[in-house]
Please model this.
Amino acid sequence: MQKGYETVTIAGEDLILHPYKAIYWPAEQVLFIADLHLGKATHFRKAGIAVPAAVEDNNLDKLTALFLDFKPKRVLFLGDLFHSDYNSNWEEFGMLITQFQKISFELVPGNHDIMAQSEYEKFGIVIQPLDYRLGPFMLTHYPVEEEEKGCYHLSGHVHPGVRLRGGGRQSLRLPCFYFGAHQGILPAFGAFTGYMTLKPSKGDLIFVVLEGGVLAVN
Model:
């Protein structure tokens, strides 16, 4: 395992946590990514809100690095792949993924995935069910409230983060990977996304995402 990664065993499977906020499942050569919100910066600029164009370039650069690093057979996007209606960033993303023809790109839809089916089809993206079973995992966009026996949920949507406290009144909020008794929540991959501070329960596993690394905090 390379420096900066962490491995956690969930549902009997080893999962590699990457500091780019992705999970790699080596046994099945699957890469899990949630909440890219591609096109969000362009969407905001159209609304008159100043957002640097480099935000989108950063997202695509990190995706490329992950594809080259892990060489997955499948990439599963757990919802909110694109932020809103079609814009030119979709074509840039399409140009990127068509360079990796040996990878199957698949989407478990989220609330922001509102483009026409034809837009996904033209780049060969497979649309999976809202609840997609893969091995011991149930893949969804939304976290679940109740345990479903026989599977472990992996999702996104809430953009999880935690607050770390130091001496005095010092504190720092950081995005995190969260693993509870029956579900795990991925941090938002997108560079232009906030996060919701979680309050972990006893026994939950939390891994914060730092610059260039992932660190267990409990």
Summary: The first helix runs from residue 40 to 46. Residues 6-216 form a domain with the Purple Acid Phosphatase; chain A, domain 2 fold (CATH 3.60.21).
